[in-house]
Amino acid sequence: MENLHFVEAVTPEQLMLMSRLHAMGWRTAYRGMIPSEYLDHHIQEDGWVERFQRRYAAGEARGLLLYRGEKPVCCISYGEVRTSPEEMGGVLELGPDSLDCTGWGEIHSFYAHPEETGKGYGSVVVNEVVKRFRDQGRPGVCVFALRENVRACRFYEKHGFYWDGAKLPIFYPPDAICVDLRYVQVL
After folding, report:
1. DSSP string across 110-178
2. CB neighbours (10 Å) of residue 60?
3. Which helix (H) or strand (E) covers residue 13, if one does?
4. How far apart (Å, rounded) are the C-alpha atoms in residues 36 and 42?
5. What's the count of helices (H) and strands (E) in the chain, helices before strands?
6. Which DSSP category does 84 fall into?
7. pTM of the predicted model, to two decimals?
8. Integer Cα distance of 130 and 180 in angstroms
9. Sheet strands side by side (includes 105-112)
10. pLDDT digits over 17-66, tens only?
């Protein structure tokens, strides 16, 4: 992988790039898992910009873009573990083996450009963020993956994460409930 470099997403243009990558990623990764009506009508290219701006300004999260040359190929949003139902989009259900993730870092989301998936860019950004959390002295890192997204679940397992039994049911209009599984890695 030649000519790769990271850019901290801080400018409005960079946050818009991240939001576009998120929208493309959602429409590609979740097709057939989340209702098409929701993906087609509620996922907008600029749909995450305000959230990124608010969370980044509050110091709750950061954004990172991975470029290959001049092309943004992958992005990741990461920061403090989200705890409130409003932040998480639902109420976390803990299992008997679920960990206390207080003080941990969380990968809030990451997506590769659909034309760039399968090229190792996801590994590059996840490994970088795990390293940053380790350097901060965090006890661990968690991430949520849609239960039906077997590809994502396998990706996290390949990178040292495991499902700790916690799950997050999320309602998607018009009438679907999907389940995010919490994957964890103790650092």
Report:
1. EEE-GGGTTSSHHHHHHHHHHHHHHHTT-SEEEEEEETT-HHHHHHHHHTT-EEEEEEEEEEETTTEEE
2. 15
3. helix 12-29
4. 10
5. 6, 7
6. S
7. 0.95
8. 20
9. 4-8, 61-68, 71-80, 105-112, 140-146, 176-186, 162-172
10. 999 999 999 999 999 999 999 999 999 999 999 999 999 999 999 999 99
